[in-house]
Structures are given as structure tokens and as C-alpha cells.
Amino acid sequence: MTENNDLKFDTLAVWAAEEGPFPHGAAVTPIYSSSTFAHDNLDEWHAVATGRSAGHIYSRNSNPTLTVLEQKIALLDGTQAAAAFSTGMAAISSALFALLRHGDRVVSIRDSYGGTNVLFEEFLPRFGIKVTLCDTTDFEQAEAEIAKGCQLVYLETPTNPTLKIVDIERLCRAASAVGATTITDNTFATPVNQKPAALGSDLVLHSATKFLSGHSDVLAGVVSGRSDLMRKIHHFREIAGATLSPEGAYAVLRGMKTLGLRMARHNSSAQLIAEHLRRHPKIVEVLYPGLSSHPGHEIATRQMSGFGGVLSFVPVGGDPALSTVLDSLRLAQRAAHLGGVATTAGPPKVTSHVELTAEERARAGIPETLIRYSVGIEDPADLLTDLDAALAQI
Ligand SMILES: Cc1ncc(COP(=O)(O)O)c(C=O)c1O
């Protein structure tokens, strides 16, 4: 399938790395639910163990179902290789610990995902790694910090939950000028809407728990990128052991076949709802990069082909209105999640940023009454009616 680069995204999402033939003519990639793999003789076993022959030894290291998923994601991301992990956070922490060492310096943004931020503020410094977090949209500040010298630049765009946009190409150029490796968390965009590798990012990160799998039934994470870096990450995964299970890999593969279809609906419904809410008298503010009023709209238009399925908004009326709106929504799961086929809504103050104090959230620019709304694939007319009915209760 690597030679068929002329095939379009939706075709690759179905076929890439899954041409078969599978045992017994099976129509889908089998779940190789096997912890280990047996060999006919010692020579063959030794050849696989030392990498001279293709094959599998032990599922913490590699597994045929996982390999299919990894090849598919690398093809869709336009990268050389990928590694799948048990969660998005396992992918992020493994990539960081595989690549960094004592004395290194990381430059990143203030608005990275809450868990990533904890790695930067709490764990990496314990290992003698310095982290500088820049204002997420002050690219001059980030460029200046990168130019001082660093080994790794870590980006995420659009950000969670305030949908800020980071200029990937600009900051990757700055990183490459000082020889730093770049990682971009592409969870909100997915490879349908954004290709960080084509914009210069060495590695691309996905919480596959979200849009990639899309059905809220699996936790998974994937790193993909340059093969020299991926070799180090694979090696770390073998030892740290946060490998994705074959069952998890199957669930992500099944979800990914409809990724293009789902993202088209997520994109168009989120745009419609964001525009509707922007005009709504019961709404103070709407954050969505597809709105021309969004400060990152121009960069998003340049680096994204769709603006994604997540938007955030603040209803009028403070705390009481927050509960009223959330509790009145019929077509939204009140849950700490996003990217599923079902609409999900929740306030960052009880989900992604629950561990921060109100002052810390204010400093991070997260209003106490912000609602993050992950638009599902339901009929958008029903979602608009549901939102209007909930807002009418204020
Ligand atoms: C942008 C982003 N990155 C990473 C993660 C972590 O992924 P997981 O929950 O699969 O560990 C999340 C989770 O919400 C996220 O939103």
C-alpha cells in the first residue's frame, strides 16, 4: 500500500495496511489475542528476535494487529513509522521519556492538554529536564525561547479546551534552526483536518481515544514520525510496557475506517452550531477556529482543511446558568470526553482542569462557566433544537 500514495484519504482509511489476505479469507484484520508467538526452530526464532527476519516474539514488543494499526496511521499521517500505546498519555509520556535526558530543555505552550502540562511542570523537572512554557499564541516569544537552545519543542493545536491555534510551520522552522525535535499533538484535528508532518513536525501524537477510534469504547494513543526517532520510542515502549492491547488496536482500526466520513460531519455540524451560538442572545462567547472572529482563524485556514468537531461557549448568567444549560441538554452526554459519535458536553472546571484552582484557571484563560461541546454525528438540526431548548431554560 506504501506505493499507492495516489489513493485518496478515505480509500486509505479503509484499505491501507489491510489488503490481506487474512487467514480463512477473513474480511477484517484478526485480533491476534496472543501474548507470545511460537517459532518452528531456534534459528528462525533467533532471526526474528535479532531483527534479521520479520515476525513477532512477544506482544509487549509487537503484535500483528497492532502492526496493521501502526502502518495505517503512519500512512494517513504521511510519516515513516508509528507506535501504538495503551492511552494517549502513555504515548505522550513515552515519547518524552524516550527522547529526553537529564540536562535537556523543552519549549512548549501553556495550553497543552492538562495531563501533558503535569508532565512538564511536575515530572520532567524531577529528572533534571528544564521546561519553558510560552504564551500559546505569542509565536515571537516561543521563537525567542527556542532560539536560546532546546532539544525538544512540543506543540498542540487546536488546544483543549479553548481552541487556540498554534502556527506549526513557523515554530517547527524555529526548532529545526537549533536542531530540536518537534512533536505536535494532533488529537483535536486528526489527520483528516491537519498533517503536522507535512508542516515540519518530526513526530505526530494522537489520543486515539478521541476522534480516531470515535466510538467512546477504547483508550489508545499513537505516536508517528521519522523512523530514527520512532526506533527510540519503540525501544522505550518495550521496556516501559504501555503497549496497546490487540483488542484495543482492533477497536481503533474499526473506527478509523469511517474517520473521513465522521470528521466531515463533525466539521460541518460544529461550524453550523458555532455560527448559531455566536448570534444567540443567551451566549457571551463562542470559541471555534472556524469562526472568522476567532484570533487563530487565519492560521487555522492555512494549516487545516477542516476546523474540527469541538467548540466551547460561555452562556449568560454565571454559575446557575452553567448548571441549567448542562443539566437541560438531552442530546449530550455530560462526560469528560470528546471525539465520539455521540455529542459530549462538560465544563473544564470539572473535567480537563478540575485539578487547578479557580485562580489558576483564570490565569490559563479558562472561564469558570465555559462549556466544552464535542459535536457528535447526530443530525445537526436536532442538536440545534436541543441547545436552544437548554439555553431557553436560563
Ligand atoms: C489533546 C489531548 N491530548 C492527549 C490526551 C490524553 O489522551 P488519553 O485520555 O487517551 O490518555 C487528551 C485527552 O483528553 C487530549 O485531549
Mean model confidence by pLDDT? 96
What are the bound molecules? Answer: pyridoxal-5'-phosphate
Query: Which residue ranges are poorly predicted, with pLDDT under 50 across at least 5 consecutive positions?
Result: none
CATH fold annotation of the largest domain: Aspartate Aminotransferase, domain 2
Q: What's the order of the H and E elements?
A: HHHEHEHEHEHEHEEHHHEHEHEEHEH
Helix content: 40-55%
What is the CATH class name of the largest domain? Alpha Beta
Roughly how many Å apart are the termini? 54 Å
What's the β-strand tally?
12
Write down the overall geometry.
globular
**How many domain units?**
2
Q: Count up the helices.
A: 15
**Main sheet strand line-up:** 1-7-6-5-4-2-3
What does the radius of gyration come to?
Answer: 21 Å
Overall CATH architecture of the largest domain? 3-Layer(aba) Sandwich
The name of the CATH superfamily of the largest domain reads: Type I PLP-dependent aspartate aminotransferase-like (Major domain)
The main pleated sheet reads as: 7 strands, mixed
Q: What portion of residues belong to β-strands?
A: 5-15%
